[in-house]
Structure formats: structure tokens, C-alpha cells
Amino acid sequence: MFGEFIKRLTAPQPARLPDADARLALTALLVRVARSDGYYAEAEKAQIDAAMSQRYGLDGPAMEELRAQAEVLEAEAPDTVRFTRAIKDAVGYEDRLGVIEALWGVVLADGERAKEEDALLRLVSSLLGVEDMDSNLARKRVEASL
User: Fold this and answer.
1) CA distances (Å), origin 52, targets 2, 14, 38, 141
2) Of the residues 7, 113, 121, 134, which has the maximum number of CB atoms within 10 A of its CB?
3) Does some domain include residue 13?
């Protein structure tokens, strides 16, 4: 289903993604983090929907379609590095901090911080070029808002 999209993500020198593709890659990354502990909770799905709705102004049916596509893409995509490279190339540092906040929101949505989620978030933060201190501050902002 997403063969061409995955091919573009895995190209040696991928082109900058159009906004719709960057949105899909970001949502798939959120899904990947949510699934990383082996349990994809309804609270995590709701947090993904809320983050993408806030970020892109999507409503119920449009958000549900985006998340459904992202779930398929996440299952078909080979690795996390391609997602993060596409997102890093598509957005500036300040916006990447927003991505990290959205990822922490998903990790914390079910009330548990699984070691698999923590490990993946550390990797993703590094691959996005976000400093550890900035990621930690993003986590604290999310925790304060819960």
C-alpha cells in the first residue's frame, strides 16, 4: 500500500517530503512509539489523535483516516531511522521540539513509562537532533499538563 512512500523514505538521498507525507511520517512515528512496549492502548491512540488534531487542525474522520494510514505505514516501514530522517529534513528545530512533546505525550498517555518506550524516545530524540536536555524539558512540560 505504501511501497512508493517507503521507497522515498529509504532512498540514499531522500527528497524533502511534501507536507502531507511529513504529516503521515510523524503520525507513523507516534504509532511506532505507542506500539514499542507491545501494548497499543486506547489512551495512546487518543493522544495521537489529539496531538495531530492540534498540530494540523484535523477533525474526527480526517484524523481517524490519518491514524489508520499511519498504523499501516508503521507496520510496513523498515525502521525508525527513515521516519526521523524525513521529519528532521521537513521541520526546523523548534518544531522538532513539538514532535518530542507529542512523542512524550504518547509515552505518558497510558500512565506507564515502559523501558521500551523510553529507549525508543531517546533514540528518536537523538536522530531528530534534539538535545537530551530539551527532550527532558519537553517531558516535564507534558507531565505538568497531565
Assistant:
1) 20, 24, 22, 18
2) 121
3) no
